[in-house]
Amino acid sequence: MAGVAGSPCSSSLVFTNRENGAPLLQYGGLRPLESKRLTLAFKRPILKSTSVRAMSSKTVAAPKREKDPRKRIVITGMGLVSVFGNDIDTFYNKLLEGQSGVSTIDRFDASSFSVRFAGQIRNFSSKGYIDGKNDRRLDDCWRYCLVAGRRALQDANLGLEVLENMDRSRIGVLVGSGMGGLTAFSNGVEALIQKGYKKITPFFIPYSITNMGSALLAIDTGLMGPNYSISTACATANYCFYAAANHIRRGEAEIMVVGGTEAAVLPTGVGGFIACRALSQRNDEPGKASRPWDTGRDGFVMGEGSGVLIMESLEHAKKRGANIIVEYLGGAITCDAHHMTDPRKDGLGVSSCIVKSLEDAGVSPEEINYVNAHATSTLAGDLAEVNAIKKVFNDTSEIKMNGTKNIEPAVTIDTVPNVKKQHEVHVAISNSFGFGGHNSVVVFAPFTP
């Protein structure tokens, strides 16, 4: 295995390009990466579109794949909202530059909080995507979802004018959220306590419930296929990818708009996670607070944003001449059945999820040469994941570290610390695990006709 990279929790995979033509498999999650921790890149030729076709390695045998083009699933579009803006290439380049999007919170007075930093989005604009009236009413969670979803559709050449001429009953939406409209919920409770129930806005319930992102995006675009949400904490978006792919495989949809959205950087959200004792308290160096596998790690970093992919059957993508970015090979979901917040120390729930995802994808452990790890900088979680990875990949993961002094001794795999690396990805897996013991693993590979 070429390497393992730590990532933030939840949201979506992004395969994108940079100016010199080298794309990156990056997890565009709820918070940006720690300032100097970057993932691996793989080579491919430049195309005119910002979304480009990935090329598989010539040195490794091709994986066993689904042959039926109606059941093969490809990614044809990407959209995001992040601390680095709403543009995929800008987001990617900021990561390559080693920039951290984590900073001191200024959305509310956090001076009395033990944690005063997060991946807070600033200067967000929904212009061109949400009208002014709705923009003022919506919870940020749904504003991010609508913008990321619409941008993903545009990236896939599925703008509103194109969708009008398509069978929209065959296009579904599955954008999940771990927290939902937390601002709307908090404001509603505050109104109840301070002014009474008659002062609660009629939008309190609709804008609080977790399914509203998928619903609003469908209403906005007229998409009438499968539509719901999944909420499995930090595993949410991977669960959505897995479920959406199965809708396509079963013939229930030809296209699914899929991802995750979160906006919990507010007093209720930050205070709640502090109470869980889950957050890093490195207030003096927030850009270095997320440090997976480091002996000095002390918890994860909150963030916000949205990431959305367009998943499409290969048959449908070819018929409309879509640009294919990468292929989804398979996935799996399991449960630790152990504890609300702590993972199993032996990593059994995680290792079984990885094995099941490879079985679903039709690939062997030897074919995996990139692991996008969950690795959120928690004391127990990071080591449990490493144990699971080593259990599945055996001696293929025994690669020495590259000049890092503070990595846990038990971590003998290459975690790509502190530097970016160019790497030709053959088959990649991405891990996501959430409170409640929810495990999810999805498998992607460069598209091969």
From TrEMBL:
Highest taxon of source = Eukaryota
Catalytic activity reported: a fatty acyl-[ACP] + malonyl-[ACP] + H(+) = a 3-oxoacyl-[ACP] + holo-[ACP] + CO2
Q: Can you tell me where the transmembrane regions are?
A: none
Key word Transferase present:
yes
Q: Which UniProt keywords apply?
A: Acyltransferase, Chloroplast, Fatty acid biosynthesis, Fatty acid metabolism, Lipid biosynthesis, Lipid metabolism, Plastid, Transferase, Transit peptide
Primary site of residence: plastid
A single Pfam family, by name? ketoacyl-synt
Q: Name one GO cellular component term.
A: mitochondrion
**Localization, UniProt:** Plastid, Chloroplast
**The keyword Isomerase appears for this protein:** no
From which residue to which does the signal peptide run? Answer: none
Q: Which positions fall inside the Ketosynthase family 3 (KS3) domain?
A: 70-446
GO function terms (MF aspect): 3-oxoacyl-[acyl-carrier-protein] synthase activity
Q: Where is the active site?
A: C234 (for beta-ketoacyl synthase activity)
Any GO BP annotation: fatty acid biosynthetic process
Q: Which InterPro entries match?
A: 3-oxoacyl-ACP_synth-2 (IPR017568), Beta-ketoacyl_synthase (IPR000794), Ketoacyl_synth_AS (IPR018201), Ketoacyl_synth_C (IPR014031), Ketoacyl_synth_N (IPR014030), PKS_Beta-ketoAc_synthase_dom (IPR020841), Thiolase-like (IPR016039)
> Assembly and interactions?
Homodimer.
Q: Which family does it belong to?
A: Belongs to the thiolase-like superfamily. Beta-ketoacyl-ACP synthases family.
Function summary:
Catalyzes the condensation reaction of fatty acid synthesis by the addition to an acyl acceptor of two carbons from malonyl-ACP.
Name recorded for this polypeptide: 3-oxoacyl-[acyl-carrier-protein] synthase
What is the phylogenetic placement of the source species in the record?
A: Eukaryota, Viridiplantae, Streptophyta, Embryophyta, Tracheophyta
